[in-house]
Amino acid sequence: xxEVLEIKQEEQALINRAYEEMxxxxxxxxxxNDRKVxxxxxxxxxxxxRYQRRKSGEPYIFHPIAVAKICAEEIGLGATAIISALLxxxxxxxxxxxxxxxxxxxxxxxxxxxxxxxxDGAYNVKSPQAENFKxxxxxxxxxxxVVLIKxxxxxxxxxxxxxxxxxxxxxxxxxxNFIYAPLAHRLGLYNLKTEYLDLCMKITDxxxxxxxxxxxxxxxxxRTSYIKExxxxxxxxxxxxxxxxxxxxxxxxxxxxxxxxxxxxxxFEEIYDLFAVRIIVDVPPTKEKMICWQxxxxxxDVHRPIPERLKDWITIPKANGYESxxxxxxxPKGRFVEVQIRSVRMDEIAERGFAAHWKYKGIAGQPxxxxxxxxxxxxxxxxxxxxxxxxxxxxxxxNLFSEEVYVYTPMGDMKILPxxxxxxxxxxxxxxDLGYHCTALKVNxxxxxxxxxxxxxxxxxxxxxxNQKPSEDWLNMVITGKAKNKIRSVMKERKRxxxxxxxxxxxxxxxxxxxxxxxxxxxxxxxxxxxxRVDLYYDIAMGKLSIPEIFKNFEVEQNRLVEIxxxxxxxxxxxxxxxxxxxxxxxxxxxxxxxxxxxxGEPADKYDYTLATCCNPVQGDQVFAYLTANAGLKIHRANxxxxxxxxxxxxxxxxxxxxxxxxEATFVADLKxxxxxxxxxxxxxxxxxxxxxxxxxxRSLSISGEEGYFEANISIxxxxxxxxxxxxxxIQSLRNVSTVSRIE
Length: 744
Ligand code: MN
What we know:
The chain is an alpha+beta fold. It has 6 domains: about 1-195, Hypothetical protein af1432, CATH 1.10.3210.10; about 210-350, Beta Polymerase, domain 2 (2-Layer Sandwich), CATH 3.30.460.10; about 405-495, Ubiquitin-like (UB roll); about 500-565, no CATH class; about 570-660, no CATH class; about 665-740, Alpha-Beta Plaits (2-Layer Sandwich). The protein has 29 helices and 23 strands. Strands 1, 2, 3, 4, 5 and 6 form a 6-stranded mixed β-sheet that branches. The chain has a 6-stranded mixed β-sheet with strand order 15-14-19-17-18-16. A 4-stranded antiparallel β-sheet has the order 21-22-20-23. Strand 14 and strand 15 (about 600-605) form a beta hairpin. The structure holds manganese (II) ion (MN). The site of manganese (II) ion has 4 residues, from loops.
C-alpha cells in the first residue's frame, strides 16, 4: 500500500515537472490570469484523466501536456490554445462535459475543445479519408487554432506510435500523410510537415528510414567539417556588413533525402547536398530585402553560383507565405551547396508559417496570403455540387502541393496560379463569369488555345461573349479546382435540365404500373449501375436507354419492382449461359447487358432467337442464323448435320451470326482512373470490377500513387462504345475512384 502511494507520488512529481517545463517553453506573452487559468485547466485535466494510461503505460495526462508543449514551443501559440490543448481529450475520454467546461472556462475554450472532439468523431465509411479531410477543412475555416492544436495532437501521437499495433500505426501514418502533412505545408508549418513525413516514413518504410538515419549519423563528422570549411571564408565578409546574423548548416530531412535517392536514382553516397546552409540576418523589415541581397552578393563572391538555381521568394513570396532567397553554389571539392538567405522574421514564418504570421501581420507589406487561401477554401467548401472525393481531388491537385506561375492582367495586376494552369484557368480565377463566357484568349497579344499552359510573366487577356457557354471538353483544358468545379456544376445543371424529359417518361411508366416512384427508382439505379438519378434520366432522354429496355428486366410484385429471374427463353438461354461461363454471376451479365451473339453484326437481343436443338451450339462454335417459317430465328452450328441442306436450299434465309466474345474485342480502350489510395487493394478492386464484374479483358494496367492518391492507366478490350460507357460508369461507382476518363 505504502509502495503504491510512493509510486503515485513519484508519478505526480513527474507530471508536475512536465507541466512546469511546458509553461517554461511558452513563447507568447502571458499575464497572471493566463497563468492561473492554465493551472486550473491542467489540474482539471490531471484529475479527469487520473485513471487512464497510455498504451505505453505512462499516465494519460502526459499526452495533453506534451500536446500543449508542441503548441507552445513549436507552433508558438498563446494561452487560449495551450489551455484548450491541455483540455483537448477530457470531453471525449472522461465524464467531464462541454457544459462543465463552459462554466469553468467560458465559450471560447469550450468551442475549441468541442471542435477538437468532433474532429476525432465518427467518420463516413464510404470515403473516410476524403470526408475526414473535408471535416478538417471546415473546422479550419471556422477557427484555425482548432486545426493547429489537432496537428500538435497528431504529431505527439506520431512520435509515440511505437506502442500501437502495426495496423493502427499504418492507418495513422496514412492519414497523416494524406491530410496533416499537406495541411502543414499549406499553412507554412515546415518543421511540422518535415517531422510528419519523416515519422510516416519510419512506419511505412522502416528499412530505408533506418538505413538513411544510420548513414547520416556515420557521415556527421565529415559533414560538420565540410560545413566549417564552407562557412569560414564567408564569416569575415559577413561581419563587415555590421548586421547581426547567424549562419548554420542544417541537414535535410530523411524523407527528402530518400525522395532524392528515388527520383534521381542515385545512392546515398552520391547525394552531396545532404544539408543546406542558412544565413539569417536580424534587421528591421524595411532593410530585409537589401541586406539579404547583400548577403547573396557576399556568398556568390566567395563561391561560384549556379545561376539557374537562384530563387527569389523575397520579392514574390510563395503562395503559402514562404519568403527566402535561395541559391546553389559550388563549394570546396566542387560540391553543390544550397544556401538560404532570410531575415529573422522570414525564418520564423518559414518554420511556423500561419502561427507566426499574426505576429508580423501588416508589417512587411505583403498581402495576407493565409486569408486569401482560407477564402478560397471557404469557396470550395460552400459549393454544394461537389462531393468529398471530387473536392479532395481538386484540392490536392492544385491548392496544396504545386508550385506557382506568376501571370499578369492587361492592367499589370499579378495573379498567382498553380503551375500547369491554363489560360482558361486564368479566366475563371479572375471571375467566374469571365470563365463561363470566355470565347478566346490572348497571351502577350497573341491568340492562344484555351488550354494554353501559362508561363511566368505571361500577360493574359480574356475575350468574352455573353452567348458563350462552357462545354464538357472544357474540363480537359483546366487544372484548377475552382475552374473544374464551376464547369462541372454547369454541366450537371445542363444534364439535369436535359434529363427532365427522361424523368417524365419514367414517371409516366411508374404511374402506369401503379407503383411508387420514390420507392422503386433506387432499384433501377442499382440494377443499371447508375451513380445518380440525373444520369439515368439523361440517358433515357437521350435515347441511350429506352423504357421497354428498362422494364423488360422487371415485374411488379406488391407494388414493387422485382427482377425477373428468367429471360424470355428460359431453358435455352440458361443452357447458353451455363455452357459459356458457368462461374459468372447473373448479376454481372446484367450489369453489362451485353449480347452474347451478333446477328448481321448487331446484338442478337433484338431478335427472337433460339438455339437449334439439333446441334446445340455454344459460344466459340462457328454458327449461322436461320430464319424459320414459323419459329423465328434458329442458331445452328456451321457443321450441323442440317447445315448443308439449309444453306443449299434456303440460302436467302440465312443470316450471318457470330459470338461476341470479349476475346474477339474490336478495339482497345485506354482509361485513366484517379482516386484515393487508402491502402493496399486498389489494384485488386479495379481489376476485380473490370474482369470479374464486367467480364472485360484487361490488356495492361499500371498504377502509380503518391500521398494517398493514385492514378491508373488501364487498357481494356471492348466491343463498342456502349460497353465502354457502361464500364466507365461502373468503375466510376467504385469506392475511392474520383475520375475515369478515356485517353484518346
Ligand atoms: Mn489527443
